[in-house]
Design goal:
The complex is a heterodimer of chains A (about 110) and B (about 110).
Chain A lengths: L3 E3 L4 E4 L4 E7 L6 E7 L6 E6 L4 E3 L2 E6 L4 E6 L8 E9 L5 E4 L3 E6 L1
Parallel strand pairs in A: 2-11
Antiparallel strand pairs in A: 1-3, 3-8, 4-5, 4-9, 6-7, 7-8, 9-10, 9-11
Chain B lengths: L4 E3 L2 E4 L5 E6 L6 E7 L6 E7 L2 E5 L6 E5 L5 E5 L8 E8 L8 E2 L3 E5 L1
Parallel strand pairs in B: 2-11
Antiparallel strand pairs in B: 1-3, 3-8, 4-5, 4-9, 5-6, 7-8, 9-10, 9-11
The chains are: A mainly beta (about 110), B mainly beta (about 110).
Chain lengths: ~110, ~110
């Protein structure tokens, strides 16, 4: 079983739509959680960290459910510029800050 | 702050050759991790360096080796290149404190022909 699993998509949505991605992780001892965004042929860039209490950054909301071992990302009012691949990342600080990546979920926002 | 820098950005090599990729971490970071990202896949962990030693390794053969220098910069070496080694190689730097995220360089795109 993979450490981190994501629906690969693609998710094709119109501008203005709300879209949600989920990600599950296998190691219950995982301690840090992130969403990264990766544009085509570019490096991943940190979108937001995910905290136990959930957190919001503008149109983006991240949630963590430790009991079910999943992380979610909600994007409201989608923009064309949100089109990218979104990577779920789980860190295990007991294992020296080793990060495990999902394969990414591709989002296409259409006009 | 220059962030994480990698060189070269693109590289074409022939099967059987050897390649060295370089990475300078973000200022203040002492841990460097290398990842291989094949087309359409998420990054796969190769290994991690801290205090000039490899302290973690993913499921990659011994053809993949590395080094970290006293200034925390790092090299990834791949010997006896195979066509399947063609990928984007990403360097990520992080600190050692809890919950610190990783920052990535722009990557080196290696093509083996």
């Amino acid at each position: 079983r993979k450490e981190v699993e994501q629906d690969p998509g693609p998710f094709n949505v119109p501008e203005g739509a709300t879209v949600a991605f989920n990600c599950t992780y296998s190691n219950s001892a995982s301690q840090s959680f992130f969403w990264y965004r990766q544009d085509c042929r570019k490096e991943p860039k940190l979108l937001m960290s995910v905290y136990s209490s959930g957190n919001e950054d503008g149109r983006f909301t991240a949630q963590l459910n430790r009991a079910s071992q999943y992380i979610s990302l909600l994007i409201r009012d989608s923009k064309l510029s949100d089109s990218a691949t979104y990577l779920c990342v789980v860190g295990t600080t007991y294992n020296f800050n080793k990060f495990y990546f999902g394969s990414g979920t591709k989002l296409n926002v259409k006009p | 702050d220059a962030g994480v820098t990698q060189s070269p950005t693109h590289l074409i090599k022939t099967r059987g050759q050897q390649v060295t990729l370089r990475c300078s971490p973000k200022s203040g970071h002492d841990t460097v991790s290398w990842y291989q990202q094949a087309l359409g896949q998420g990054p796969q962990f190769i290994f991690q360096y801290y205090e000039e030693e490899e302290r973690q390794r993913g499921n990659f053969p011994d053809r993949f080796s590395g080094h970290q220098f006293p200034n925390y910069s790092s090299e990834l070496n791949v010997n006896a290149l195979l066509l399947g080694d063609s990928a984007l190689y990403l360097c990520a730097s992080s600190g050692t404190a809890l919950y610190l995220e990783a920052f990535f360089g722009q990557g080196t795109r290696l093509t083996v022909v």
